[in-house]
Amino acid sequence: MPHTPLPSLSLLREQLNTDSGAIHELKALLEQERSLLEARDTEALVPLIVRKDELQAILVKHARERQQWLEQAGLKSWSDFLNSRDTTTALIEPWHALADTFAQCQELNEINGRLIGRSRKTLEQLISLMRGQSLEPELYTAKGGTTPKKDGHTVTKA
């Protein structure tokens, strides 16, 4: 890995400000995504997902840079890095605020994932009904397999 110089205080502040803006926008997008998922407004989700991907790319790029700086400094956490230099201790509090907002984003993302999972399951059940398949759960046999699905009555035929 090529040797990169440790970042200046101004670079650290700039990166922290960029990440803070990105993570707050991401949080707002995740909240908006939840509303759109609940309303089943899939068309409005498309631009939102594109923007989420852009923000994620920024955050991942900066996380990789921080990881390189940590490895170069021989430290394990970003808090240790900020505490290791007198000039960076002022960034500790904003870093913790960023980490807290990131944790909130993770929680919102998990909620949205569960909403997506429920919607997918509902859609699968509707498709099964249209195909005339039973909605009865499959049971395991003594040999560890599953019981075959019963033939149902097809609602429609193509």
- For the termini, the CA-CA separation is 59 Å
Rounded mean pLDDT score: 86
Low confidence ranges? none
Architecture per CATH nomenclature, i.e. the level-2 architecture: Up-down Bundle
Number of strands: 0
CATH class: Mainly Alpha
* Estimated structural class: mainly alpha
Number of domains: 1
Q: How do the helices and strands follow one another from N- to C-terminus?
A: HHHH
Kindly state the percentage of residues in helix: 55-70%
Radius of gyration: 24 Å
The CATH superfamily appears as FlgN-like
Beta-strand content estimate: under 5%
Largest sheet: none
In short:
By secondary structure, the chain is mainly alpha-helical.
Any descriptors?
158 residues; Methane Monooxygenase Hydroxylase, Chain G, domain 1; 4 helices; 68% helix
Layout of SSEs?
Layout: H1 9-39, H2 42-73, H3 78-83, H4 92-130
Helix pairs in contact: 1-2, 1-4
Task: Tell me what you see in this structure.
This protein has 158 residues and is an all-alpha fold. The chain has a single domain (9-130), classed as Up-down Bundle (Methane Monooxygenase Hydroxylase, Chain G, domain 1), CATH 1.20.58.300. Helix content is 68%, strand content 0%. It is built from 4 helices and no strands. It has helices at residues 9-39, 42-73, 78-83, 92-130. The longest helix has 39 residues, at 92-130. The mean pLDDT is 86.
